[in-house]
# Entry
Amino acid sequence: MNIISDRNLESRVRSLPQIIQGGMGISVSNWRLAKAVSSCGQLGVVSGTAIEAVHARILSLGDPEGKLRDAYSYFPDKELVGRVMKRYFNEGGKSADERYHTIPMFKLQPSKNLLELIVLSNFAEVKMAKGDEDLPVGVNYLQKIEVPTPAAIFGAMIAGVDVVLMGAGIPSQIPQLLNDLSEFKSVDYPVKVINSPQGMSFKTTFDPANVMDLNILKSQLGADVLKRPVFLAIVSSDVLAYFLAKSERTKPDGYVVEGPTAGGHNAPPRGKLTLDDSGQPIYGTRDEVDFNKLVELGIPFWMAGGYGNPEKLKEALELGAKGIQVGSVFAVCNESGMEESLRSRLIKKALLDTLVVRTEPYASPSGYPFKVGQMEGTLSESVILDSRPRRCDLGYLREAIYTKDRGLKFRCPAEPVGHYLAKQGEETDTEARVCLCNGLMSTAGFPQVRDENGEKFVEPPVITIGDDLSLVSKEMVKFLNVTFDIAELSDQPEDSSHHISWSASQVIEYLLSCS
# Structure
């Protein structure tokens, strides 16, 4: 394992490539996709969001390919690995109609058992992406998901992760967190709490020494410090970029500037939320990025959201960007972690011009607008959403709230309505909310199976994708010189798959074709 102790972050960020693959969760940006991208000389990124839950489900399936067990064998603390395996590994694997074992939901201070799983899974995902070649690899997290962040980043750092990316909030704490974790320090990470009493703040504490034997780690690494990764803050405006750059404690090493056409969570429009006739947020001139101000900052940046084609790469470079971050066209490539039939159906709809992507203002429990691809049999259909029994057993997007009578509690507007109301929630906040945690798990091919009134219920998926998938799909097909019959494709049943696909290396070749 290559541990780099130098702190020359500026030179490392400036050596990053033009193309950064988007960190799409849950497990869409898996280790296979990141490794494929990095093998082509660009920056592959794994999603760290809920990766501990993904690994727990793979282990309950018996780790059929043996990939996790192989990656775990490189982890320095073998006793920690043994404990995780004892808790979650199911020799032979569960049957298709059996329920996955659910990992504990987060409290303000997670149990040691849960922290061990978080550290190990983030380590392994990065380790598998880097491979024997020690490829440069990034990891992506959401600011909104606060409690597991320190342990997750520490696990990725043990594997030598090169870049940490974070969006869906204001990641002002991350630069100092990376500094402290690289020196194995105990860290306090603030947690936002609604109705927090005046003068009271809340935090989660992570001490690496309480989770694993640091002497073993340092001995195996041959160093007293971990490589401090480059930090790229995902922002939606030059205003936020300037805010973060004001202090050395909050200043990132670079930015990914993401527009509202990107998949996943989008920043809300600045000012009062206004919806168009179709119920989608309206973005205006206040949401436009001033590229001259970004260039004046003197901090490298990459453009994202609708930049997934060669001409937009050229445009980004002319505007002063270092390059682009691309998600959608990678999300449907062969190495993506998205369930195969969903990928195929997305490409088909894109080529037929029947793919609709909506920016849903209220779907996500996080409160951020969320891109939802309209697809039959998914939670984009009201009949599917309304028929799903409300459950909150993963809880990544819960928010903390303090009440005088009950103290600190966690709630989610997608949980059972009565539970949410009991924690001072408003019923109107529960309307149209989607359980993204379970939906995205299903999209990655790990749907939970439940017994509902004596019948088996399988969690339906939810698709998130950028607005530009139809455009880039057609351009990819043209670039690959693939011919197909529109009429024949149209005549196929809606849920049928087809043969058109592409690899991550072909995506990169396409993106660089104008350079």
About this structure: The CA atoms of residues 62 and 93 lie 4 Å apart. Residues 376-462 form one domain. The radius of gyration is 22 Å.
